[in-house]
């Protein structure tokens, strides 16, 4: 299906009679953490080969019933997205560049042989959920409602081919800082034993399998006292972290980030690099070898390294650790200043000059 659907879907709304009380919700929002609490409702839309997208619903949040032979449970035909809703000072609720997430989900769908959800339906699903669960968008500074759209093969069939029945869901989770301890430099473990993706693989798609294969290296990172893992490609070029892109800042003001067809094209990265370009920084998207990174830090050519993604926003990298070495990363001002500019836009504290925000509650 191409992105030409325009007729809005008509959602059936079933209210959750066991919805959390305002007091229970307030208690959760006091300390939301990341990804552990969920709102009262969820959205789902069915797809079938013959019927296309149909039966759009808003229903109480709860378990999904699946046939044990559902293809996703066997062959991992699944994709997802991550996007946030932000509360502005006037109470309104906005999201950030949803067209980009919709387009990336369509690209992931093509790679995983899933149907493409039209952008209009993607955006409508966000609006429908906010219409019932808008009170879950936190008011506290730097908190947001993390929205998790996902799609999977639900057809009960053990042959290996694209499923003819698919489900799209949207759930939401109030979110504070992704890393415990808030915004402080994180430590990164260099994975030498594992790769995240390969040429022609699924690295550029947001599919669960990429994250499943990152768990063992991520555990290795934790064993070495590190917060995240960084992956290299087969030529020892830097790819990305388990769930974030990497950006290098050079002494002369250049900003360099890995270009590769096996990493996820981050929307946070794209936005932050745009803001940096607006400030006059030259941005280079090209391969960056591990050697360039380590030499650059050692010589002082690289003056800052940071990670970025929807969940983590912009987070400075404080240390790169690997077998037999530990490079302390230089600390600078740019990452935090770009983080501030980006979040000011997202929370409506600064002009949205690129037209990145979309109001969801009106
Ligand atoms: N890379 C990976 C592997 C990710 O999971 C994410 C998070 O979504 C990103 C990069 C950053 O992407 P975005 O900024 O669109 O959230
Ligand atoms: C996101 O930032 O949206 C992600 O999907 C990353 C994940 C590690 C939570």
TrEMBL record:
Catalytic activities: L-leucine + 2-oxoglutarate = 4-methyl-2-oxopentanoate + L-glutamate; L-valine + 2-oxoglutarate = 3-methyl-2-oxobutanoate + L-glutamate; L-isoleucine + 2-oxoglutarate = (S)-3-methyl-2-oxopentanoate + L-glutamate
Record's keyword terms, sorted: Amino-acid biosynthesis, Aminotransferase, Branched-chain amino acid biosynthesis, Pyridoxal phosphate, Transferase
InterPro entries: Aminotrans_IV, Aminotransferase-like, B_amino_transII, BCAT-like_C, BCAT-like_N, BCAT_family
Enzyme Commission no: 2.6.1.42
Transmembrane portions of the chain: none
Enzyme class: transferase
Pfam families noted in UniProt: Aminotran_4 (PF01063)
Pathway as given in its UniProt record: Amino-acid biosynthesis; L-valine biosynthesis; L-valine from pyruvate: step 4/4; Amino-acid biosynthesis; L-isoleucine biosynthesis; L-isoleucine from 2-oxobutanoate: step 4/4; Amino-acid biosynthesis; L-leucine biosynthesis; L-leucine from 3-methyl-2-oxobutanoate: step 4/4
Requisite cofactors: pyridoxal 5'-phosphate
GO molecular function: branched-chain-amino-acid transaminase activity
Family: Belongs to the class-IV pyridoxal-phosphate-dependent aminotransferase family.
Name of the molecule in the record: branched-chain-amino-acid transaminase
